[in-house]
Amino acid sequence: MAERRLVAIYPGSFDPLTNGHLDLIVRGSRLVDRLIVAILRNTQKQALFSIPDRMDMVREAAGDLANIEVDSFEGLLIDYAAQRNANAILRGIRAISDYESELQMALLNRRMRPETETIFLMAREEYSFISSRMIKEIVTLGGDVSSFVPANVASRIRAKVN
Ligand code: PNS
């Protein structure tokens, strides 16, 4: 019988990478054969970091995991999944407030490409209140985010604001 490999895409904006994202990358990488962390190239959102910077930050923080790859994509996630021969999408859920939009996204994606399953992991409690959007707001207002993001991200943020 042919060996079945699980290739998952963990998509997101990652602007910036948080401790919650990193925890999901580590836990996801243990579950699947290959995990592709895919950063959305979205020109509409006001970005803190460029796409190459965001990719570097994920590589710096998670580069010791042998089965992960960092990439970027634009357009529909399911088209990217098809192009990468991925059979799963990985997403994290922090609180019930995430559930509604994640359910909608998973159902739309499933209708468009049934062969790609969405796998959800619950965020660890200690990270369940962290979001990139809030981190950006705190950074913009001069606050300290070093306990919410990996050390390499914190030092890049310091370099940016100083
Ligand atoms: O980190 P985010 O911003 O919550 O990630 C959202 C993301 C990138 C997963 C989502 O916006 C996405 O998949 N965008 C690509 C366009 C797409 O496929 N849209 C239809 C989803 S139903």
Number of strands: 5
Strand order of the largest sheet: 3-2-1-4-5
- The number of helices is 6
| Secondary structure category | alpha/beta
From the spread of the alpha carbons, the general shape counts as globular
Largest sheet: 5 strands, parallel
In whole angstroms, the N-to-C terminal distance is: 58 Å
Low-confidence stretches: none
The arrangement of helices and strands along the chain is: EHEHEHEHEHH
Summarize model confidence as the mean pLDDT: 95
Rg over CA atoms: 16 Å
How much of the sequence is in beta strands?
15-25%
| Molecules bound to protein | 4'-phosphopantetheine
Care to describe what's here?
The protein is an alpha/beta fold and 162 residues long. Helices cover 43% and strands 19% of the residues. A five-stranded parallel beta sheet has the order 3-2-1-4-5, sandwiched between helices. The mean pLDDT is 95. It binds 4'-phosphopantetheine. The site of 4'-phosphopantetheine (PNS) has 9 residues, from strand 1 and helix 4. The site of 4'-phosphopantetheine has 9 residues, from strand 1 and helix 4.
